[in-house]
């Protein structure tokens, strides 16, 4: 049996009729989307960026370069710290595996 798709517009009058029969309150209608209030205020538009010239442009370029260098240094240190943690974890896991047969033998 194949079910044909039903439009919401076809179902809403039926729901309104059922609701009117079931509830003593007046029927509540849902407004079309264009007429509903927004759920939150709209963000103000972003102002266009101002063009920088001369000393300002050089200062911004220098700040961006310094940031890029600091970030690259941070990433290198993070990678090294991660590598050390992985090595330590693998060493601890190998030590646990080596101790396991002795523990099993002693506490059996």
Overview of this protein structure:
This protein is mainly alpha-helical and about 110 residues long. The chain has helices at about 10-20, 55-105. The mean pLDDT is about 85.
Concise synopsis of the structure shown:
This protein is mainly alpha-helical. The chain is 62% helix and 0% strand.
Number of helices: 2
**How much strand content do the residues show?**
under 5%
Biggest sheet: strands, sense, closure?
A: none
Tell me the helix content. Answer: 55-70%
Low-confidence parts: none
What is the mean predicted local confidence, pLDDT? Answer: 84
Counting DSSP E segments of at least 2 residues, the number of strands comes to 0
| Class of secondary structure makeup | mainly alpha
- Overall spatial form: flat
Distance between the termini: 64 Å
Could you state the order of secondary-structure elements as H and E? HH
Kindly provide the radius of gyration, computed on alpha-carbon positions and rounded to a whole number of angstroms.
Answer: 34 Å
Strand and helix layout:
Layout lengths: L7 H15 L32 H52 L2
Q: How would you describe this structure in keywords?
A:
single chain, 108 residues, mainly alpha, 2 helices, flat
């Amino acid at each position: 049996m194949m079910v044909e798709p039903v439009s919401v517009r076809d179902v809403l009058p039926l729901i309104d009729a059922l609701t009117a029969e079931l509830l003593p309150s007046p029927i509540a209608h849902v407004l079309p989307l264009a007429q509903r209030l927004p759920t939150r205020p709209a963000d103000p538009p972003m102002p266009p960026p101002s063009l920088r010239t001369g000393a300002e442009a050089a200062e911004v370029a220098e700040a961006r370069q310094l940031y890029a260098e600091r970030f690259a240094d941070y990433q290198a240190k993070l990678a090294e710290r991660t590598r050390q943690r992985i090595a330590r974890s693998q060493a601890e896991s190998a030590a646990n595996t080596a101790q396991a047969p002795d523990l099993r033998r002693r506490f059996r």
